[in-house]
Amino acid sequence: MNARRPWAVVLAAVLLAACGEKAAPTPIAHDAYVWQRRWQPALAAALRDAADLVGAWRILAAEVDRQGRWQPIAVDRAAIAASHRPAIPVVRIAAPLATLDRAALMADLLALRGDWPTSTTLEIDHDCGTRQLADYARFLVTLRRALPSGQRLSLTVLPDWLGARELDGLLATVDEAVLQVHSLDKPAYRLFDAASARAWTAGLARRTDKPFRVALPNYGSRLVLDGRGRIAAVESEVPWAAERVGEVPREGRELFAAPASVSAFLRWLEKNAPRHLAGVVWFRLPLAGDQRAWTPATWRAVITHREKPVRLTGELQPGDRPGQQVVVLQNQGAMDGPLPAALIVKAPCRGIAGTNGYVLERESDDSVFLRSQQALLRAGDQVIVGLVECSSGSGRVQIDE
């Protein structure tokens, strides 16, 4: 009996260690939306450079605009073929189905399907209200009957739909769903919230027995506000333009999906993959010069678990007038990151004005430039946050995260 006790202790220790060992993360399949309406050389290069990250491209192939007009996209088929990745055509329907000529729409969809002979899936992106879900389901039933045998049908799903009884009927019409967990969240005015994304993902997993994917954001948008503070437009694919010191700030609000927040949600998915999760789809494929998306290097780092710390520095540079300097914030690292909470310019420099999301406040002898709104500073970029009065070389900048 005594001789066996050491082995029993060892066995117990091994079992305890095994019980305490965390489950290995589940590899997640990655697709990416190619949502650009103009195919330029930079887009072809992005497909080539990112092909090793994705399983398939989901390409905006046509759009029904708000006036009900069918708008085909001139897609570069040679660039897609050169990437050696399959492509799934996506049709965006922006107008209410009730306002459309459904026979004409059906004919356009079938014609488009014929233009993509190697694709086995067609995806529909239609953000309708919950009251229209039953009608949307009837439309998809008709579309499915008209599609060739074996053709798979996919659709995007909004979080608002998860509480609707009609969602079950809608999901029954398709082979796959893509849950959109990024959108304009009012009144918080944010594009992505990890806690909400986890709840929505779990909610869809309870509602479907079919494969589904989660659409993740790697982009930013700017809300354009009218004179009453209401949203007049949302800009997502136009260049971000910094304000110069002294300019009247443009009425608007910059929104973005922070890489650290999205990365944390992705890690959660890998460790807690719900049933039927088939992968994620990134919105959208980032280009080298796209100022409203993460840099391609940041996107790659998040997917491959190779994130690095953000490296922000502040410095004073000569201004346009003698005795004045501009406060410059730089991202010298390899990862995009949010603007810091404050930049403090030490005395004897004296602050004059803030800009580009920063406002000037004074604290004792130092000048404090406080962040008034969130924004993302891409790796390798810099932005002017204010203007100070002092001679060259007489002040220094401290960053408060």
Write the layout of secondary structure elements.
Layout (H helix, E strand, L loop, with lengths): L4 H16 L9 E5 L6 H10 L6 E8 L5 E3 L4 H7 L3 E7 L8 H14 L5 E5 L7 H14 L5 E6 L9 H5 L4 E5 L13 H14 L4 E6 L2 E6 L5 E5 L16 E5 L2 H13 L5 E7 L12 H8 L8 E7 L5 E8 L5 E2 L3 E4 L4 E5 L3 E6 L2 E6 L4 E2 L4 E8 L7 E4 L1
Number of strands: 22
Unreliable segments (pLDDT under 50, ≥5 consecutive)? 1-22
Q: What CATH architecture label of the largest domain applies?
A: Alpha-Beta Barrel
CATH topology of the largest domain: TIM Barrel
Categorize the overall geometry. elongated
Summed up, the helix count is 9
| Overall SS class | alpha/beta
Q: What percentage of residues falls in helices of 4 or more residues? A: 25-40%
Instruction: Spell out the CATH superfamily of the largest domain.
Output: Glycosidases
- What gap, in angstroms, lies between the N and C termini? 62 Å
Strand arrangement, major sheet: 1-2-4-5-6-7-8-12
> Compute the gyration radius: what is it?
25 Å
Sheet having the most strands: 8 strands, parallel, barrel
Count of structural domains: 2
What is the CATH class name of the largest domain?
Alpha Beta
Strand content: 25-35%
Average pLDDT, all residues: 89
Signal peptide: 1-23
InterPro entries: DUF3142
Protein name: DUF3142 domain-containing protein
Keywords: Signal
Descriptive notes:
With 401 residues, the protein is α/β, with parallel strands linked by helices. It has 2 domains: 30-219 and 257-303, Alpha-Beta Barrel (TIM Barrel); 312-400, Sandwich (Immunoglobulin-like). The chain has helices at 5-20, 41-50, 77-83, 102-115, 133-146, 167-171, 194-207, 259-271, 296-303; strands spanning 30-34, 57-64, 70-72, 87-93, 121-125, 152-157, 176-180, 212-217, 220-225, 231-235, 252-256, 277-283, 312-318, 324-331, 337-338, 342-345, 350-354, 358-363, 366-371, 376-377, 382-389, 397-400. The strands form 5 sheets. Strands 1-2-4-5-6-7-8-12 form an 8-stranded parallel beta barrel. The protein has a 4-stranded antiparallel β-sheet with strand order 13-14-21-17, with no helix packed on it. Strand 1, helix 2 and strand 2 form a beta-alpha-beta unit. Helix 2 (41-50) packs parallel to helix 3, helix 7 runs parallel beside helix 8 and helix 8 (259-271) packs parallel to helix 9 (296-303). The protein is elongated. Residues 1-22 have low confidence and may be disordered. Pfam families: DUF3142. Keywords: Signal. Residues 1-23 form the signal peptide.
